[in-house]
Design a protein that fits this description.
The protein is an alpha+beta fold. The protein folds into two domains: 19-140, OB fold (Dihydrolipoamide Acetyltransferase, E2P) (Beta Barrel); 164-204 and 293-546, BirA Bifunctional Protein, domain 2 (2-Layer Sandwich). The chain is 31% helix and 20% strand. The protein has helices at 19-24, 26-29, 77-83, 144-149, 158-180, 243-266, 300-310, 346-367, 369-377, 385-394, 402-414, 432-442, 493-502, 511-518, 531-539, and strands at residues 33-46, 51-57, 65-70, 90-99, 107-118, 184-185, 191-192, 204-205, 293-295, 312-320, 333-342, 398-401, 447-453, 469-477, 481-488, 524-530. The strands form three sheets. The protein has an eight-stranded mixed β-sheet, sandwiched between helices. Helix 5 (158-180) packs across helix 8, helix 5 (158-180) packs across helix 9 and helix 8 (346-367) packs antiparallel against helix 10.
């Protein structure tokens, strides 16, 4: 395969130097004049008002550039000092890069000229006066809760900007990893009529309520019991229908029946599109998609269709779950990475998952070092973050069965070494506290648990020979617990149909998924990784709401 062409911008060129580039090549830029742009994090006076120090940041790096303005050399010095509003104001600065006498910074800029691009109008409640009194991020430090409430501005904070750069790096690493392995990136639909998990916790998509949120006469169409009118109700005489109308009616009925029969003959496994009529239930036939549609909880089922033709594929996109949860590990809108590999078993799946996770961690350590260093030292950061991440790539993941995991947990309880809210018994869905105990206390490294009881796993997972467990695996990591969930998929049609029935899944709704087992079925496997959980794991933060630009949780869809 030929190497990809290099990116050589022929037209686009920045009229400034990014701070990331400056700090990575200080020797090259020292004693030269350059232009930088950015937003002030701090602004302070010195030498009895004769000097002004601007701490400028452009978002390309966690580090800021100190720009030194001397009153006698800067023509608009007083305007900058009193007319910008302080922290948050934006500038274009031209000056000379010099060695800094201050501790903790290699270089600074001796300003030659400066242009105020945007002042902060926070001097009054109405936002009409220059000043920083009402600028939300005017203080030096803020709580994470406060930053969530001001999500439109929190990217200007050191913490959130570092997290966003790491998030970008992990997205890039994901695409690079799978592309290098020969995977194809497949865009799966956001709107679907299938429930991959069978949990029913989906957001509905409808136009039945109209576009006006203040409309007062909204009524949803429902199925009503059909009542045949009597002669008295019709005024004593049945309504007469002309022969031509009767002929048209019979012709339309025959055409509809013929169309339905032709569709059934073309694909006998495809069910009729007729809605199931349940008296009192919403009638979706007049809705946009003519049936109930939802936001997807997973792209897995859709991407499997392409794995069974293109071999190795993955999807990376937003997913949604209407789960009324307020924990630090759940969001209503989140991103999922879901690779699917053909001609593969659970072992192949686990090998791919371990390689992928280790690559992401290695990429973060090598490409995001300044941000990781900041996160390790900041007040809400994790002490020992870098060492924990290094531990991930240095050891192979430990693999144990679900049964072995339960035995370990039971022994820990009986010996008094551990105490859990729930009793560890075979058949339970392991709670986070047990998952973290296994990977943090017992093994102190990522582990993979395989062969879970079939009753706690999804219908599509391959049934093992013991008829009690499925070829499923969860990868658990310290601090998070489960970060990856995967399985070998059931390739046997009869077994899959039986599993649908056992799990309460209507196989008629998944006729197309079953077709993959009818026409050239192959062994295949895949996994899902919640992208935000990966960012939590890499950054060391505690709350998943702090690693996505605009978090969605029950009661909150601001911005």
């Amino acid at each position: 395969m030929a190497d990809a062409p290099k990116v050589t911008p022929n037209l686009f060129k920045r009229n400034r130097i990014r701070l990331k580039e400056l700090f990575s090549k200080t020797g090259e830029y020292k004693d030269t004049t350059i232009t930088v742009c950015g937003w002030t994090r701090t602004m302070r006076n010195a030498n009895k008002g004769q000097l002004l120090f601007l701490e400028l940041n452009d978002g390309s790096t966690v580090n800021s550039l100190q720009c030194v303005l001397e009153k006698e050399e800067i023509e608009n010095f007083d305007d900058i000092k009193s007319g910008s509003g302080g922290a948050g104001s934006s500038f274009e600065v031209f000056g000379k890069v010099i060695e800094s006498p201050a501790q903790g910074q290699e270089v600074e800029m001796k300003v030659i000229s400066v242009k105020l691009l945007g002042a902060v109008y926070g001097g009054d409640v109405e936002g009409k006066t220059v000043g920083g009194m009402y600028y939300p991020l005017s203080k030096k430090s803020h709580s994470l809760e406060f930053l969530r409430e001001n999500a439109h501005l929190r990217a200007r904070s050191k913490l959130h900007s570092s997290v966003m750069r790491i998030r970008h790096a992990m997205a890039y690493a994901t695409h690079h990893f799978f592309n290098a392995q020969g995977f194809l990136y497949i865009h799966t639909p956001i709107i679907t009529c299938a429930d991959c998990e069978g949990a029913g916790e989906q957001f509905g998509v409808t136009t039945l309520m109209g576009s006006d949120p203040h409309k007062t006469d909204v009524t949803l169409p429902i199925y009503k019991e059909e009542v045949v009118p009597t002669l008295s109700e019709e005024g004593g005489e049945p309504k007469r229908v002309s022969k031509s109308e009767e002929k048209k009616k019979r012709k339309a009925e025959r055409a509809a029946a013929a169309k339905k029969a032709a569709a059934a003959a073309a694909n006998p496994n495809r069910p009729s599109k007729d809605e199931q009529k349940i008296i009192g239930a919403v009638n979706y036939t007049s809705d946009f998609f003519s049936r109930r549609a939802n936001l997807t909880v997973s792209g897995q089922l859709n991407v499997e269709t392409h794995a069974c033709a293109l071999s190795d594929v993955y999807t990376f996109g937003p997913t949604f779950r209407a789960e009324n949860s307020h924990t630090t590990r759940h969001l209503c809108e989140f991103w999922m990475i879901e690779p699917e590999i053909a001609f593969a078993t659970l072992d192949d799946d686990l090998n791919l998952a371990e390689d992928y996770l280790k690559y992401c961690v290695k990429y973060a350590l090598e490409m995001c070092a300044p941000d990781l260093e900041f996160l390790e030292k900041c007040p809400v950061g994790e002490e020992g973050l870098v060492e924990r991440l290094k531990n991930v790539i240095e050891k192979p993941f430990k693999r144990i069965t679900y049964t072995e995991a339960i035995t370990i947990l039971q022994n820990a309880v009986s010996s008094g070494e551990a105490k859990f809210e729930e009793k560890p018994e075979w058949g339970i869905d392991l709670p986070t506290e047990m998952e973290r105990y296994l990977c943090e206390t017992i093994y102190n490294q990522p582990i993979a648990i395989i062969n879970y009881p079939k009753d706690i796993k999804a219908f599509y997972m391959k049934l093992n020979e013991d008829q009690k467990t499925v070829a499923a695996a969860d990868v658990l990591v310290p601090k998070i617990g489960e970060i990856i969930g995967g399985s070998q998929r059931e390739e046997n049609l009869e077994v899959l149909i039986q599993r649908c029935k056992e799990c309460g899944v209507d196989e008629k709704e998944l006729w197309w998924y079953l077709d993959l087992r009818r026409y050239g079925s192959v062994k295949h496997a895949g996994f899902g990784l919640g992208f935000e959980r990966l960012i939590l794991f890499v950054t060391g933060l505690e709350n998943i709401r702090d690693v996505i630009p605009f978090p969605r949780w029950p009661g909150n869809a601001e911005f």
